[in-house]
Write a structure and sequence with these properties.
This protein is an alpha+beta fold and 418 residues long. 35% of the residues lie in helices and 22% in strands. The chain has twelve helices and 16 strands. Strands 3, 4, 5, 6, 7, 8, 14, 15 and 16 form a nine-stranded mixed beta sheet that branches. Strands 9, 10, 11, 12 and 13 form a five-stranded antiparallel beta sheet that branches. A two-stranded antiparallel sheet has the order 1-2. A hairpin with a 6-residue loop joins strand 1 and strand 2 (32-34). Helix 1 packs antiparallel against helix 3, helix 1 (8-18) crosses helix 12 (397-415) and helix 8 (243-260) runs antiparallel to helix 9 (298-319). The longest helix is centred in the C-terminal third of the chain and has 22 residues, at 298-319.
């Protein structure tokens, strides 16, 4: 079949325009970053812009009850299940221009390209973006896609709160994205998500394209350690119930676990640590920290979680503090569909683009949608060692174009020419 090519300049213009919604000047890097947390005013503005591009591409747009947005291009056989593309447009607090948005804007560019080429497909094709993929504001990542796939209920998602006490439901209503379409969508024929890699594998291999074999296990927990506040100058060391010291030992132990090799390719991060009352001359009474564990092996992930819980129990007794765990998120290793992977591989071969196969270290909406239909991902190489979740996140116009060319032609293969 003749391969189609997207308009790379148009895609790049869209990426650069969208990044200015929530754009800020980052002092740490001296670069232009993006701060567009889910269901904020900035997110609402970005949503409206992206929806306008969907409509300009002739798509029928709908919003569901968790705020996910879909744009549909009709097929010649409308009764057939659609082929779905998707990702997200929310960012972390110090984000870049490509994480999630490449897959969404690239999907719209696929639709435009099909329109301009006069190509009709047997199956409908949809492009969607999901609410609160990052999990930064409401504490649960892949929220919109998890509700769509049925792993989380709409009621549960609606009642999640941010740091200020606002609920997901309240914020959906406030910004005008409390849609009326069902949140449990019809099962697609297949799903492909194009995303920057967020790691160094592709750059190290010297290729622009990755075919993602699956997503590793992810565990998010919040640990609260409660001791007793006391005067920093008058309280003997041996008499203290120092929640801050206990938290420090947790962080060190997580790093030791990763370095030990006892738990395979475990990665552990404490990304948020808060001490109370937060005064220079007062021993911390409370420490709250988030624990992010990742592992490509479910059994070793379970062993790591068990060991950490036992370690915390022992150090809590030693430091005379109490420990309370709260589960924020947990997903097992998710393998992607081999058939969809092979379609992507055949497409890359036809385009003359070398690729590698790799497991994703980050979580993606694709891992949720994989529970309801065959799914896989296309990775695109990033610069600066593939760094992401920082304004240093960058993928070249060429790499982005190659990734969306692969997406376009793989989608066309799956949807079938009419």
């Amino acid at each position: 079949m003749t391969e189609i090519r997207i308009n790379r300049e148009r895609l790049w213009r869209d990426l650069m325009e969208l990044k200015e919604i929530g754009g800020y000047d980052d002092e740490a890097t001296g670069l232009r970053g993006v701060r567009r947390l889910a269901l904020t005013d900035e997110d609402a503005e970005a949503r409206r812009l992206v929806m306008s591009w969907m409509r300009q591409a002739g798509l029928r747009v709908r919003v569901d009850r968790i705020g996910n947005v879909y744009g549909e291009r009709a097929g010649e056989e409308p009764g057939l299940p659609c082929v779905l593309m998707g990702s997200h447009i929310d960012t972390v607090a110090t984000g870049g221009a490509f994480d999630g948005t490449l897959g969404v804007l690239g999907g719209i560019e696929v639709m435009r390209t099909l329109n301009e080429a006069g190509i009709r497909t047997r199956r409908p094709i949809e492009i969607g973006f999901f609410t609160e993929e990052e999990g930064v504001r409401f504490g649960t990542d892949m929220l919109g896609s998890a509700v769509t796939a049925g792993r989380l209920t709409l009621e549960y998602a609606h009642h999640l709160t941010d740091a200020g006490g606002a609920t997901v439901k309240e914020e959906l209503v406030r910004i005008g994205f409390d849609g009326d379409a069902p949140e449990i969508r019809p099962v697609p024929h297949a799903y492909i998500e194009c995303h920057i890699e967020q790691g160094p594998i592709l750059a190290t291999a010297g290729v622009d394209i990755g075919i993602v074999t699956g997503v590793q296990s992810i565990s998010w927990q919040r640990l609260t350690l409660r001791g007793e506040a006391a005067h920093a100058g008058t309280t003997p060391i041996g008499s203290r119930a120092d929640a801050g010291l206990a938290a420090a030992e947790v962080i060190v132990e997580i790093r030791r676990m990763c370095d030990s090799g006892e738990y395979g390719q475990l990665r552990g991060t404490v990304g948020d640590l808060r001490l109370m009352p937060g005064q220079t001359n007062v021993i911390p009474s409370d420490a709250t920290l988030t624990v992010d564990l990742r592992n490509p092996d479910d059994t070793r992930m379970t062993a790591a979680e068990r060991h950490l819980a036992q370690h915390v129990e022992a150090l809590a007794a030693r430091h005379r503090v109490t420990a309370t765990w709260e589960r924020m998120a947990k997903t097992a290793v998710i393998p992607f569909d081999r058939g969809v992977q092979d379609v992507i591989a055949e497409t890359a071969d036809a385009l003359g683009l070398p690729y590698v196969r790799a497991m994703s270290g980050a979580g993606h909406d694709a891992q949720e949608i994989a529970a309801i239909c065959p799914a896989a991902m296309v990775f695109v190489a990033g610069e600066n060692g593939g760094v992401s979740h920082t304004p240093r996140e960058y993928s070249s116009p060429s790499a982005c174009g190659n990734g969306i060319d692969v997406l376009a032609n793989a989608i066309l293969r799956l949807a079938g020419k009419a």
